[in-house]
Amino acid sequence: MNILVEIENRCYHCNTQIRSEKEKIYAKLKGKTELFCCFGCKSIATLLVENELTRFYDLRGSEILEPVSYARPNQENLETDSTYQEYVIQKENGICETLITIGKIHCSACVWLNERIASEQTGVLETRINFATGRMKLVYDRNRIDLNKIFSSIRNIGYEPALYSPLKAETKAGLFSKDLFLRMAVAGFSWGNIMLFSVGLYTGYFFGIEVEFKRLFHFVSWIFATPVYIYSGYPFYKGSVESIKRRMLSMDILLFLGVSLAYFYSVYVTLSDKGEVYFDSVCTIYFFVLIGKFLESTIRLKAGRKIGELLCALPEEYTIVQDRRQISVSPSKIQKGDKILLKNGNRVPVDGILETENAHFDESFLTGESKPVSRKKGDSILSGSLCLSTNVFVAATATVKESTLSRISSLVENALQSKPKIQRITDKLSIYFTSIVLLLAIATFSIFYFYYDNAESAILNTISVLIVACPCALGLAVPAAYVVGNLLYGTNGIIVKNPDSMEILSHADRIYFDKTGTLTFGKLSIREEWFLKPDDYLRVYSILLSMESNSTHPLATSLMKEIEKKLRQKNKSPISIFWKKIREVPGNGIEAVSLNGNQTYRIGNRKFVSNGKDSQDGKIYIGVNEKLIASFRLEDTVRPEAKETIRKLKSRIGFFRNPFRRFQIRRSITCLFFGSEKFLL
Questions:
Q1: Is the pLDDT assigned to residue 191 strictly greater than 70?
Q2: What keywords were assigned to this record (predicted)?
Q3: Are 553 and 388 a contacting pair, CB within 8 Å?
Q4: pLDDT at 314
């Protein structure tokens, strides 16, 4: 007896099957003749063997990769100033850091190969790829290697590197959300229509229905369910195929397998007129799972945008001074050494050195300190600080990419890409859970088919096991909660660096509050006011409003809002007051001279206003010709939920280094504290 054995020909590199003799290409590697599907795969395999990187094939296993395109795309020069300004963080001694997206990464073997090829280039100091995002963190020495050579080494092994752009990433995420919405809409439309016919079928099951009508309802349901199965279910089919290629079990496999059995069993019933159809289940399952995925995608996009708003709230243009000329440039164009002109309310775009004698900055974004800080000439100014003075000059010591704001952004980016501990655990559990469910499904089918000899019951019960036991909730709950959490944090001005923080926080047994904006709103209001002449309040209010009208200092802004509120309550309008001269005195307050030049008004601390001893009572004083005429005490407003929150926490609370500020808050939440001041510390 003659036995014909057909040997399957596969490409040595990408493992795809070669069906035609014309496609076969041979090459000798380490003295052994190997088969390839194209010259691209042959070239890369030769490169890997020459560099002793054949472990790639051990890691690849039976994974089928995409054949390598032999044609090389036109490579643009990456060693340009614009590239380094927009994409690269430049550190000391030529050390650079950037993010690269790498296309065609399919498995852990691809990750290993790209990291090895890049890291073996002279001058590359660090490479780390996030498999989920396909993004590589690259640290290299620009004095020893350039980006063109690194990109070329990655292209030479068949992958597609590109510089990572958050804007492009957000656009891609937006398109993905739109795609999910369309698939969800198709599933929802079909589900709604099928349910109308299903009502008739359900009724007919209990009370009887004409065969012609039942057959019609089955065929109409089939028509509506088919686009759902093919179009709406494509992401789950694709996910199943990818999981099988990687020899891993996933939720998609269970979901797609269960829905496929339900769909094709219903097709059989429709054509044979035997039994009941489950087209409604096909649409229902895909519709609701897609709703969950769409909501997760939308919230993830919103969370990213919200955090982006916190980190990147920079004006589109800044003014720099060159050769006594003022030039408007975008933040990304600012170079080291540029002299930046900042106005009231401008956020500092890059790290720099203050060149103005004195200036005030709000650094609460960076430090959490509620009060503005005074800086003098030569002090370092960090990007993200808010300028509270006029005509302030800062000499740039870094570009946007190298500045503090960019580093914070990178930290948050890494945090958003990483998974919290509980999600890593559920991901592992879902794999085991999927295996158990598949075994149960096989056991269910075997018992009903072989023991009870009932094929229909075997199929229906297997479908029930696959669909009911699908770990969609397990796999989606934690990521959804994590994304919603990030959105809520961003909405409340909180940036989470470590995704495990919230889980760790749940085990804390002692919590200390610090900084404005936690127990308080961070918004000041008038708690106490004094007038030399009580009936003269309208004139004092008017003086305050006219002198503080051009100030962006937080205290001035809060005081003006409070005064305007009081005038509305009293149904009064401020008196128009004009000044001969008005100026801001850094570190002290505001001074204004009346039109006749006989009176000098001052607003600020007591020493500045009355030329007396300074006090630390937190009051704002108003005086004329060094004589006090009024004073105001501003206090932060305690959040209404603060008392209940602290009561529930049941822990010691230490906060506010300033004793007077601590007394203010303690007085507002007096029921929460017992004992002496020492207890609070």
A1: yes
A2: Cell membrane, Ion transport, Magnesium, Membrane, Metal-binding, Phosphoprotein, Translocase, Transmembrane, Transmembrane helix, Transport
A3: yes
A4: 66
Share above pLDDT 70 across residues of the chain, in percent, rounded to a whole number: 73
Structure tokens at 256: 């797609």
Looking at residue 10, what DSSP letter applies? B
Query: According to the model, what pLDDT value does residue 653 have?
Result: 43
What is the separation, in whole angstroms, between the first and last Cα of the chain? 94
User: Please, are residues 57 and 374 in contact by the beta-carbon 8 Å criterion?
Assistant: no
Query: What is the per-residue burial (b if ≥16 Cβ within 10 Å, else e) of 116-144?
Result: bbbeebeebeebebeeebbbbbbebebee
Contacts of 448 (CB under 8 A, 6+ apart): 454, 457, 458, 461, 462
Fold of 508-681: Calcium-transporting ATPase, cytoplasmic domain N (3.40.1110)
Pick among 3.30.70.100, 3.40.50.150, 3.30.70.20, 3.40.30.10: CATH of 81-164:
3.30.70.100
- Residue 531 sits at φ, ψ, to 5 deg, of -125, 140
- Does the pLDDT value for residue 3 go beyond 60? no
Side-chain-side CA neighbours of 324 within 13 Å: the count stands at 0
Q: Which residues pair with 29 in a beta bridge?
A: 32
Q: 499, 315 in Cβ contact below 8 A?
A: no
CA dist., res. 49 & res. 31, Å (int): 11
Pairwise CA distance, residues 274 & 271, whole Å: 8
Residue 544 has pLDDT above 60, yes or no: yes
Distance CA 166, CA 284 (A): 35
**Residues 6+ positions from 298 with CB-CB distance below 8 Å:** 177
Answer with the residue of higher pLDDT: 301 or 266: 266
Q: 319 forms bridges with which residues in the sheet?
A: 328, 341
Count of residues making up the chain: 681
pLDDT class for 326, splitting at 50, 70, 90? confident
Q: Which residue pairs from 88-93 have beta carbons closer than 8 angstroms and sit at least 24 positions apart in sequence?
A: 88/147, 88/401, 89/401, 89/402, 89/406, 89/407, 89/410, 90/142, 90/399, 90/401, 90/402, 91/402, 93/141, 93/143
pLDDT tens per residue, range 9-50:
778 777 777 766 666 777 777 777 788 777 667 777 777 777
CATH of region 318-400: 2.70.150.10
Of 191-195, 244-248, 306-310, 566-570, which gets the smallest average pLDDT? 306-310
- Rounded-to-integer distance, Cα 20 and Cα 143, Å: 49
Stretch 215-242: mean pLDDT, rounded?
A: 89
User: Pseudo-torsion of CA 422, 423, 429, 434, nearest 10°?
Assistant: 160
What is the average per-residue pLDDT within 378-405? 86
Please name the helix (run of DSSP H) or strand (run of DSSP E) that holds residue 165, with its range, or none. Answer: none
* Cβ neighbours for 629, distance < 8 A, ≥ 6 positions apart: 531, 532, 533, 536, 540, 622, 623
| Average pLDDT, integer, range 181-198 | 89
pLDDT higher than threshold 80 for residue 127: yes
Enumerate the domain spans of the chain. 1-71, 81-164, 170-308+419-482, 318-400, 508-681
d(CA 283, CA 271): 20
DSSP code string of 216-258: HHHHHHHHHHHHIIIIITHHHHHHHHHHHHTT---HHHHHHHH
